[in-house]
Amino acid sequence: MEQLIKTLQNIAPVTGRVLLSLLFITAGYGKIAGYEGTAGYMEMMGVPGGLLPLVILLELGGGLLLLVGYQTRLVAFLLGGFTVIAGVLFHLIPSSGMEGMAAQNEMIHFWKNLAIAGGLGFVFTYGAGILSVDNRVKV
Fold first, then answer.
1. Nearest to 51 by CA among 42, 62, 61, 60
2. pLDDT 10s digits, 48-72
3. What string of H, E and C letters represents the secondary structure of the chain?
4. Number of structural domains, the chain?
5. Residue 138: per-residue pLDDT
6. The domain containing residue 6 runs over which residues?
7. pTM reported for the whole predicted model
8. How sure is the predictor about 139, in pLDDT bands with cuts at 50, 70 and 90?
């Protein structure tokens, strides 16, 4: 049983990193594919569309770094902060002007963002795990 626990403890960090990273990689890629629409949506929500290249860099670049486990603590910190800010700007604030299912849907998205940030908090706290570039180069 101890060997199984040790194996799972080695696999769990990389599994978590992969699952979290896929969210950001696909979001970043989607923003490239729908650049004009995303910039317009950001503007409509009161966020300057000129920030979109930085958002793409953070999501796509940070997602890829998280995937391989390089500079993992820094990336987890940045992505976690970004996720909380995005949740507030794009879900919490808009939900205050809504009613019924629309408001409930936005609140679900807001709480999901907080849960993602919580997962990134674990990555920040405990690092990338042994199956990572950070472990290989001892960052």
1. 42
2. 999 999 999 999 999 999 999 999 9
3. CHHHHHHHHHHHHHHHHHHHHHHHHHHHHHHHHCHHHHHHHHHHCCCCHHHHHHHHHHHHHHHHHHHHCCCHHHHHHHHHHHHHHHHHHHHHHHHCCCCHHHHHHHHHHHHHHHHHHHHHHHHHHHCCCCCCHHHHHCC
4. 1
5. 73
6. 2-137
7. 0.93
8. low
